[in-house]
Design goal:
The chain is an alpha/beta fold and 353 residues long. The protein folds into 2 domains: 215 residues, Rossmann fold, CATH 3.40.50.300; 66 residues, CBS domain Like. Helix content is 42%, strand content 23%. The protein is built from 17 helices and 14 strands. A 6-stranded mixed sheet has the order 6-7-8-3-9-10, with helices on both faces. The chain has a 4-stranded antiparallel sheet with strand order 2-1-4-5, sandwiched between helices. A hairpin with a 2-residue loop joins strand 9 and strand 10. It is globular and about 65 Å long. InterPro entries: AAA+_ATPase, ABC_osmolyte_uptake_ATP-bind, ABC_transporter-like_ATP-bd, ABC_transporter-like_CS, Gly-betaine_transp_ATP-bd, P-loop_NTPase. It is a peripheral membrane protein. Belongs to the ABC transporter superfamily.
């Protein structure tokens, strides 16, 4: 296994029903989800999941309701036991852990941020933030400073004496994030963590997560059903449908090269100019164009470059990182990248007839 792989999921299956092992044999013989339910009254929750999650990156697992994303994340800390497969953390199979080692995994190695906050109503914000340390047996005097540090970091300085019901939804979720950070675990599991929040608050929380991640480099597994959120947060994107991986990879690559009609439908309404980055459509070269209109960065959005160019498709820009040219961006190529895949395919078919 590569050294930078923190979590590795191998051939993971989950079948719900009275005889999952027996049902697994039918799945291995080629039986699909609908047929398994119709003939054997078992639910195929996950089917042959293979995903590597790199250390210090955000892996977003997304899909529609019923796709298996929440089932998958609960296998990482064995809140759900698989029917078959492996879950490796730092090269160790979590499924081999005894009760004590599994308890340590949940308390020390992984923290979890839930959709509906999961704060204890009878504990103060500070006590909720230090919950992991309290469960480990630490006295309040020992964890108070650490808890207060993370409350300050998420913008809740001075709120430690409050109780959860006295806070807004967005503030309660900030407590949830502070609690996960205060546990000092290298892995954060976030199950639809922002989906219960209003849109503006949700955007603020996404920005906060990216800000903290830029500093802390946790290994984050984030569950979402929202494509805009996934494209904003993900270093690695995994898209599920009916319990199986349809496509996974770098989000920009998936957006430009979807490999399944399901993905094409998924991304059809996305604002490509807002989410695509210069690095995804530039030509990699250190040779400056004959007439450069200026410099742009590899992580600039295409929307920002369009604004900079004033819509002039005749322009070409140098792409510069840390003062060094790494590519060029031709505005005509940028415009072509804005055409959705399905529309581009329709156009090619029309020209061929």
């Amino acid at each position: 296994m590569e050294n930078d792989i923190k979590i590795s999921i191998r051939h993971l299956y989950k079948i719900f029903g009275a005889d999952p092992a027996g049902a697994l044999e039918h799945v291995m013989d080629g039986m699909g989800k609908d047929e398994l339910m119709e003939k054997h009254r078992h639910v195929l929750g996950l089917q042959d999941i293979n995903v590597d999650m790199r250390n210090g990156e955000i892996t977003v697992i997304m899909g529609l309701s019923g796709s298996g994303k929440s089932t998958l994340i609960r296998h990482l800390n064995r809140l759900i036991e698989p029917t078959a497969g492996e879950v490796l953390v730092d090269g160790e199979n979590v499924l081999d852990y005894g009760e004590k080692r599994l308890r340590n995994l949940r308390r020390q190695d992984m923290s979890m941020v839930f959709q509906h906050f999961a704060l204890l109503p009878h504990r103060t914000v500070l006590e909720n933030t230090g919950l992991a340390q309290s469960v480990r047996g630490d006295a309040r005097a020992d964890y108070e400073g650490e808890a207060q540090k993370w409350l300050d970091r998420v913008g809740l300085g001075g709120q430690g004496h409050q109780y959860p019901h006295q806070l807004s939804g967005g503030m309660q979720q900030r407590v949830g994030i502070a609690r996960a950070l205060a546990s000092n675990s290298p892995i954060m599991l976030m199950d639809e963590a922002f989906s219960a929040l209003d849109p503006l608050i949700r955007t603020d929380m996404q920005d906060l997560l990216l800000e903290l991640q830029g500093e802390l480099k946790k290994t984050v597994v984030f569950i979402s059903h929202d494509l805009d959120e996934a494209l904003k947060l993900a270093d690695h994107l995994v898209i599920l449908k009916d319990g199986r991986v349809v496509q996974q990879g770098e989000p920009q690559e998936i957006l430009l090269h979807p490999n399944d009609p399901y993905i094409v439908d998924f991304i059809s309404d996305i604002n490509r100019a807002r989410v695509l980055r210069v690095r995804s459509v530039m030509e990699k070269t250190d040779q400056a164009p004959a007439q450069a209109a200026g410099d742009v960065g590899p992580d600039d959005t295409l929307e920002s470059v369009i604004a900079l160019s004033g819509g002039d498709t005749a322009l070409c820009y140098k792409v510069v990182r840390d003062g060094k040219q790494i590519g060029t961006l031709d505005m005509k190529k940028l415009v072509r990248a804005l055409v959705p895949t399905s529309a581009a395919e329709d156009g090619m078919r029309a020209r061929a007839t």
